[in-house]
């Protein structure tokens, strides 16, 4: 009897093990099916939309296209071509908005072709069909990518220096709308700033300059005006020269919110909008961030290093930073608003055409310099 019970127990255990193994096998198969579905969905997302689209070999387009460049969208890599079947070229005999005298001018009804990177085939996109005939000068780059984070905005500038913007969405090139019309640019240059914004420069009435910073909403595919600053005459010219020198250079724009915490940080020598506290070696800052705009001596003979968003002043002998200056363009605020946050200044006096307000913060001081209208031009943090 005992042997019978023992044998029966073994048979039951064997049955349970078989069921367990079958269940484990089923789970593994289901997991493989899930992974397969995810991979298929990824492949579908990655593919360029091909239905109803004309196609051309990428080898041929590389030879014939006026422009070609790389782009990314949703972590996938693409090649974009700009090509016109009816392209014509001629030398410009007299200067105009389109080109200078003697330059090659290309005209035609251009189309974009989109290919996955390293693909042998590219597919025609219809986004330029409504633009009519376009003209491009040999001396200017009028179509190029702007990298914003993990995605690319494509810029195509027409002969009147009005930009058009495009974006790769679900395997197709789509046009980006703008919430405000854009002024004609000084030339065909614009730039991506901090992987998040696009900045343009404009000359108004041959004298004043406007630097406009644009944000991009990927979900609605709208380019919106984030900030704009008017800079007069020679000061604007100076900034445009700096702006044009290198692709990394940009004009400071609104990206700081002034709060009451600024005073507390100032007591520790930590400036607003900078990762480097007072007392840092200027050589370490330059080594860490070599993309500065200018360096030299100010009108008082104090050495400085100018970055787009901050200026560092330092001791000539030691190279230790003892003051920083934040441009008012980053704050876009007034002395009245500063007083609401910080209270009454420890000192206030007339300075140039505006005001100078001083707030003491232990071993440091915050100095607010305004224009005659009370707008903050500079915010300094100095070691006493």
TrEMBL record:
Q: Which UniProt keywords apply?
A: Signal
Signal peptide (residue range): 1-17
Under what name is this protein listed?
DUF4309 domain-containing protein
